[in-house]
Design brief:
This protein is of the alpha/beta class and 305 residues long. It folds into two domains: 11-135 and 291-302, Rossmann fold (3-Layer(aba) Sandwich); 137-287, Rossmann fold (3-Layer(aba) Sandwich). 38% of the residues lie in helices and 15% in strands. The protein contains eleven helices and nine strands. The strands form two sheets. It has a five-stranded parallel beta sheet with strand order 7-6-5-8-9, sandwiched between helices. It has a four-stranded parallel beta sheet with strand order 2-1-3-4. Helix 5 (137-151) packs across helix 6 (169-180) and helix 5 packs across helix 11. Bound molecules: phosphoric acid mono(formamide)ester. Phosphoric acid mono(formamide)ester (CP) binds at residues 56-59, 130, 139, 263-265.
């Protein structure tokens, strides 16, 4: 079976069947990357460009490792050290990279819709590695894969996404992925960090973080994205931590155990305390490990389409 799309631009326009197929393929690759010899020849002769116009640690390294585990040829481009600084346009930059016979492009950009724009102008398959506040599809895939791994299935589970919903591409992609897989979704955070029409996506909206924790099986905690905040949405980080930070005292008040997730990078002591982030409730490093297998699956399925 093939994916329904040539590109992975977002979770909104892929099917539940696509996600299940990515998960099944990722199961096989997870077994591969835990072998002594972690490499397979699946993408030999395929060249992939990772083009990052915005900072990244996890996504960039995870894609590069996934590509190398599949034996692809890999080139990396970082806008901060490129001719973008001399005024070259996005399309010129990408067309120059493609002239070097590149088959697939993994792209992160600060502008929502940048990978969609490219997909209308170039022939190569594009994977969106995060476009501004819009979508981060492979993050949602690895998040839902990690829930499936920890809880057996995603369908029927209650997932609360807590934090800076307004600026979060992770929240939007997770909402689409969780709903396609049959989970119930709640978003929780200060009203100032809540998109005005978020309830139209069919999610519950909760302003009280303790109530959100009581409701959910899984809490996916989001980073406060200060770099995207042009105005003050709350008085201080200290006050945010007081009202919305997830700490051991809050979890101890629950009469059940919940799974704690975070896409990273964590602002420790703000949205999440270390005694929770590093506890047995947390699957944060499982998310990172699963990211490689899930990205191998996406690359493999798109390349073989
Ligand atoms: N989760 C995530 O996208 O992290 P990076 O910004 O480090 O890639």
């Amino acid at each position: 079976m093939a994916l329904s799309q040539k590109h992975l631009l977002g979770i909104k326009n892929i099917t539940a069947g696509d996600i299940e197929q990515i998960f099944t393929t990722a199961d096989n690759f997870k077994e591969v990357i835990n072998r002594p010899i972690k490499k397979v020849p699946s993408l030999r002769d395929i060249t992939i460009a990772n083009i990052f116009f915005e900072n990244s640690t996890r996504t960039r390294l995870s894609f590069e490792l996934a590509e190398k585990r599949l034996s692809a040829d890999v080139i990396n481009f970082s806008a901060s050290s490129s001719s973008v600084k001399k005024g070259e346009t996005l399309l010129d930059t990408v067309n120059n990279i493609l002239a070097m016979k590149v088959d697939m492009v993994v792209m992160r950009h600060a502008s929502p819709g940048a990978p969609h724009f490219l997909s209308r102008h170039i022939g190569a398959s594009i994977i969106n590695a995060g476009d501004g506040t819009h979508e981060h599809p492979t993050q949602a895939l690895l998040d839902t894969y990690s829930i499936r791994e920890r809880l057996g299935e995603v369908a029927g589970k209650k997932v609360a996404i807590i934090g800076d919903i307004l600026h979060s591409r992770v929240a939007i992609s997770n909402i689409f992925a969780l709903q396609k897989l049959g989970a119930e979704v709640m978003v929780c955070g200060p009203l100032t960090l809540m998109p005005r029409h978020i309830a139209d996506l069919g999610v519950r909206v909760e302003l009280d973080v303790q109530k959100a924790l009581e409701w959910c099986d899984v809490a996916n905690i989001l980073r406060i994205q200060l770099e995207r905040q042009q105005i003050k949405y709350f008085p201080s980080l200290r006050e945010y931590a007081l009202y919305y930070g997830i700490n051991k005292a809050r979890l101890d008040r629950l009469n059940k155990e919940i799974v704690i997730m975070h896409p990273g990078p964590i602002n420790r002591g703000v949205e999440l305390d270390s005694d929770v982030a590093d506890s047995g409730h947390s699957i944060i490093l499982d998310q990172v490990e699963n990211g490689v297998a899930v990205r191998m699956a996406v690359l493999y399925l798109l390349a073989n389409r």
